[in-house]
Design a protein that fits this description.
Layout: E1 2-3, E2 9-10, E3 21-29, E4 34-36, E5 40-54, E6 57-73, E7 79-98, H1 100-105, E8 115-127, E9 137-153, E10 157-175, E11 181-200
Antiparallel strand pairs: 1-2, 3-5, 3-11, 4-5, 5-6, 6-7, 7-8, 8-9, 9-10, 10-11
Length: 201
């Protein structure tokens, strides 16, 4: 608590982040996560860096991958277990954290990487075909507008949630009368959402 110029007392805001660069790692319900056939269970791993470039503005980059854990039951009763890379990709974007003054007045944490934000993000992804050992193939590129929040807990904990809409050049595949599969890319509106739990350095 401290006294204001008018003699009133207001709560002291949590300390602002003094660093202009944030390194983080996380997992959760985000790109790279999948469950069910034919993928089995795929767990995402995300590493990223976020840099403050102006008050309330940051730029960021994330690298993500999905590690597939699969158990196959054969007809003879044998069990095959394997782990491999399901997909990989990267995000690049810019954020603006808003309502920092109101958060400070309410005694909430503020800083370069804490609070609610609006973001413009570009994502590109590659996927691993089901045949083990094959190279990654290009999947899609998307551009999205996001609303999100990022919070710190403890000295190194981090939680982030986001949602929004974007455009993606997803691939469309179908079979012709001759049995050949045709593929083409269509630009589609695609929702974006995720929750990540991680740590910061």
């Amino acid at each position: 608590m401290h006294a204001s110029a008018a003699g009133q007392t207001v709560p002291t805001a949590a300390a602002d982040s003094s660093s202009h660069v944030l390194f983080k790692g996380s997992t959760g319900l985000t790109r790279g996560f999948a469950v069910g056939e034919p993928t089995g269970l795929t767990l995402p791993l995300v590493v990223g860096v976020e840099c403050q470039v102006a008050p309330h503005w940051t730029v960021y980059a994330n690298g993500f991958s999905g590690v597939r854990l699969k158990v196959n039951l054969q007809n003879q009763g044998s069990i095959t277990k394997y782990m491999n890379l399901y997909n990989a990709g990267a995000d690049f974007g810019v954020r603006r954290y808003y309502n920092q003054t109101k958060r400070r007045q309410r005694g909430l944490a503020t800083g370069a990487f804490v609070g609610n934000y609006l973001a413009l993000q570009s994502t590109s992804s590659w996927w691993n075909p089901r045949t083990i050992g094959r190279r990654l193939r290009y999947d899609f590129t998307a551009v999205a507008v996001l609303w999100g929040l990022q919070r710190r807990f403890g000295n190194h904990g981090l939680v982030e949630a986001y949602a929004g809409l974007g455009l993606s050049n997803d691939i469309q595949a179908h079979y012709t009368d001759t049995g050949y599969e045709l593929q083409r890319r269509l630009t589609r509106v695609k929702p974006e959402a995720g929750i990540k739990l991680g740590f910061v350095l």
